[in-house]
Specification:
- This protein has 168 residues and is mainly alpha-helical.
- 58% of the residues lie in helices and 0% in strands.
- It is built from 5 helices and no strands.
- The longest helix is centred in the middle third of the chain and has 34 residues, at 85-118.
- The mean pLDDT is 80.
Length: 168
């Protein structure tokens, strides 16, 4: 089954709009800063079409923002809303858009991961940490020394015993 191609611009635009609407009434500045900084990395990923790092950082930022959004909603959602009807409607709209953004983020992460793979990223995400393997076939034994032309004549000496011109 073919996965539909979703444009990165559409993902960034949709989350930008939902974040603006989500910030209208009740969420703190940390929600805004976190989501807009991730969207700025998304703009970087749009601008550099061949950059694997930009898409990977956007993907990691989206995954981290899922966790921070859940924390923001659990801390700042009011326990009782005994406010005026007009303010209540704005709150409900803002909360709905923020929750919709949170619900769409895993799907967006899936499509951004597909873009990461299309740009040449690995299937498994590698952070550059060295790995330990038990494969000993790549090692050379220090007991036997193979003489090559460079090792047999390391100081640029002639083979007949006479020293050649020295170049320091």
């Amino acid at each position: 089954m073919e996965i539909p191609a979703i444009n990165l611009k559409a993902i960034v635009l949709a989350h930008w709009l939902l974040t603006i609407w989500g910030c209208m009434a009740w969420l703190p500045y940390s929600y805004s800063w976190g989501n807009f900084s991730v969207l700025a990395i998304g703009v970087w990923a749009i601008a550099q079409r061949d950059s694997i790092d930009a898409v990977l950082m956007f993907l990691m930022g989206m995954l981290a923002s899922i966790l921070t959004d859940i924390i923001h909603f659990s801390i700042y959602y009011p326990a009782n809303d005994l406010s005026i009807d007009r303010a209540n409607n704005v709150f409900r709209f803002s909360a709905g858009m923020a929750i919709l953004s949170l619900l769409i983020k895993p799907v967006s992460c899936f499509f951004v991961y597909q873009m990461y793979r299309e740009r040449g990223g690995d299937y498994n995400v590698n952070f550059g940490f060295p790995s330990v393997t038990r494969n000993r076939e790549a090692y050379q034994s220090i007991d036997t020394q193979e003489e090559s032309a460079g090792q047999a004549n390391p100081f640029n000496q002639q083979q007949d015993g006479k020293t050649g011109p020295r170049s320091y």
